[in-house]
Amino acid sequence: MYALVTGASRGIGRAIALQLAQRGHDLLLVARSEDQLKALAQEIGQKHQRQAQVLALDLAAPGAAEKTAAWATQHTNQLAVLVNNAGYGLWGRFEDLGLAEQQNMLQLNMALPVALTHALLPALHQAPQAYILNVASTAAYQAVPSLSLYAASKAFLLSFSRGLRYELKARNVSVSCLCPGATTTDFADRAGMGAELQATANKVSMTAEAVAAIAVAGLLAGEAEIIPGVLNKVSAGLTSVVPKGIVEKIAAGIYEKYL
Ligand SMILES: NC(=O)c1ccc[n+]([C@@H]2O[C@H](COP(=O)([O-])OP(=O)(O)OC[C@H]3O[C@@H](n4cnc5c(N)ncnc54)[C@H](OP(=O)(O)O)[C@@H]3O)[C@@H](O)[C@H]2O)c1
Fold first, then answer.
1. For residue 14, which atom of ligand 1 is closest to its CA?
2. Of all atoms in ligand 1, which is nearest to the CA of residue 37?
3. Which segments of 23-138 does DSSP mark as H helices, in order?
4. Using one digit for the tens of pLDDT, what is the confidence trace for 170-195?
5. Which residues line ligand 1 (CB under 6 A)?
6. CATH number, domain at 218?
């Protein structure tokens, strides 16, 4: 069976693709960086003797979901896993960041997984058992000043995942949402986070490989929400009992003070 992973060229997506290959899936890999995708496809062939096809595409561009779905269905009629992982954050005050770049982020983090899931659900329903993994964040559980829109986009993805999971509960498609905390990838650089904030995050960061191993185990076990790491589980849990104003003050103390 095939698994399609968006944002597979590096970071968490790359590690998830390798985990799925190790568990016997062939891979459909999508991101913009063709060379990195091809190198990963080769690694998957050599290490795990699985097939991997690559599609180099800007997933925030108009029509990207439709192109990806058409490409996927051209390559296989055995799609069993969809991983909506491609995404990024933008660090800064909402009014200081450009509107166009923030809208691009919303397109990739929210509209793309929605459109891709809609386009690929008919194919997933053909599999005996299929899985969707939406990659959100612990930021989905709370507002984060200086990452306001990013956190809102991940809250959207978590809510969408839970609703869709319920809608599909009597069907063959299990929907999970992965909510990682700080993870050592290019995420912080892409978000424009400064060195001091990155140094703070590094103290509690997990590796992409550790996150991916927990993610794929949770996905195949049919878990609704997968929060890797004890610290992340505790901090996400606290957001439901600590008053929102206090949670936001703590988050601002971490993220906003370095602006
Ligand atoms: N790292 C963290 O601390 C952390 C924490 C919580 C959640 N997350 C989430 O985890 C997911 C993966 O992030 P990461 O940490 O692995 O970051 P990353 O190392 O920057 O990887 C991001 C991936 O998304 C792809 N991507 C970005 N823009 C794209 C576009 N326009 N079109 C196609 N692909 C695009 C990138 O590939 P190309 O550049 O080659 O296109 C890359 O493969 C994201 O949804 C992120 O929000 C990360």
1. 43
2. 40
3. 34-48, 64-75, 99-106, 112-124
4. 999 999 999 999 999 999 999 999 99
5. 7-13, 31-33, 58-60, 85-89, 108, 135, 137, 180, 182-183, 185-187, 190
6. 3.40.50.720
